[in-house]
Amino acid sequence: MDYDDARGERPRLLVVANRLPVSAKRTGENSWSLEMSPGGLVSGLLGITSQFDTKWVGWPGVDVHDEIEKNALTESLAEMKCIPVFLNGVFDQYYNGYCNGILWPILHHMGLPQEDQHDTNQTFETQYDAYKKANRMFLDVIIDNYEEGDIVWCHDYHLMFLPQYLKEYNNKIKVGWFLHSPFPSSEVYKTLPSRSELLRAILAADLLGFHTYDFARHFLSTCTRILGVEGTHEGVVYQGRVTRVAVFPIGIDPDRFIRTCKLPEVTQQMNELQEKFAGKKVILGVDRLDMIKGIPQKYLAFEKFLEENPYWRDKVVLVQIAVPTRNDVPEYRKLKSQVHGLVGRINGRFGSVSSLPIHHLDCSVDFNYLCAIYAIADVMLVTSLRDGMNLVSYEFVACQEAKKGVLVLSEFAGAGQSLGVGALIVNPWDVTEVSSAIKEALNMPAEERETRHRSNFQYVCTHSAEKWGLDFMSELNGIIPESEMQMRK
Ligand code: G6P
Known about the structure:
Elements lengths: L11 E8 L2 E7 L2 E6 L3 H5 L8 E7 L7 H12 L3 E3 L6 H17 L16 H22 L5 E5 L6 H8 L4 E5 L7 H4 L5 H9 L3 E4 L2 H15 L7 E4 L2 E7 L6 H8 L2 H13 L4 E8 L6 H14 L7 E8 L6 H21 L7 E4 L5 H10 L2 E4 L8 H8 L7 E5 L4 H4 L5 E3 L4 H13 L2 H17 L2 H14 L3 H7 L1
Parallel strand pairs: 1-4, 1-6, 4-5, 6-7, 7-8, 8-10, 11-12, 11-14, 12-13, 14-15, 15-16
Antiparallel strand pairs: 2-3, 9-10
Helix pairs in contact: 3-4, 4-5, 5-7, 10-13, 11-12, 11-16
């Protein structure tokens, strides 16, 4: 489909997300180095940029107070089509507090944490206020850059007020909102103190997108139970207007992974890794060190596996890359010590002077190395307790054309629905089940591995990030905003 507008120009699209796809590092006075981080969102927009004149709006990853420095950074970012939102004064309570201390656990079925009784400056209320202020700061930057006809695509739980604020500013703006995390059951969502305001705010959008049918269904029933509105096949009818609700499962850019695995320096890294782990099967985990990823549960299952299968003790290694994340949120710091305790215990029980069963790394690795380790792994272990999609499982599949390793995947990750035929699907809370799946994966005959891999690979290649972005934009672009409908009547 072609999106050329009446003037024959590409329509403008503003993609708004908490984090810009570029991270800024100070290199000196008024000078910055900018690095592109090509995650799911960036890949998703690869296909769109040929059809839409796209700009990003988001937080640049650093606090900048000085006006001259802000201008210098804004200019550098402009070359990469990025527009910064400086969240000075609200960042901590907005990002660490409301987004990641309250919304994130609720959306992932972890429940509302206890409010800190001792710090009256950091209450649910002050964090909620900071959240709204931050959303207004995004709005202000959008207004400064908005041109008539621009489409605005808002991303994720950080920006739930933005659709409402945008429509209040100008109800002709076409607004989409996509949730990259799960949407919980209404019974869990209902515990959120500001539950109705947030729902109303996102319902102001023209199109709401979710990764899976289940998340969309949870959202619709939550709207019914909390706001008393009915979901139809089109979406939600609220206060006389329809908000489309639809499912768009995100993917990756598979070619980037396939290409990288063929680079000489990457095959060299693969050889080195294979040599290092010679005589052993490699089980791999790659996760942000987040409660939702179920890393402690993964370690408990692996411990059970070693306990019950002495044959495998010196023939298998679990390499876990645990990427540090959100270190200023107390729950994440607690998780880190818990995980370190488990690694110590398991390595102490089953290790020897020459070999350790778990290689736990508190760091990220560069892209080439990541592809090399994906490619040499025999088993990938994804035990998310709840996860929007989990693209790590897709990345593993894309890198496994030669080896055809086995994916053990949580049924609570969005990917559990898309890769359900090829993967061994597990309940991550059930350590006995995960331990048995590890054994099954390690013993799986080559023919079955081939068949399962084929099915996964086919899915990952046909459901790319690019397709996701184009599908969402095609749907959003086809919607006639309410304001225009009224004019046509
Ligand atoms: C999840 C969220 C994203 C977020 C990412 C990394 O995938 O859905 O919106 O960017 O985690 O988390 P961070 O807090 O570091 O941006």
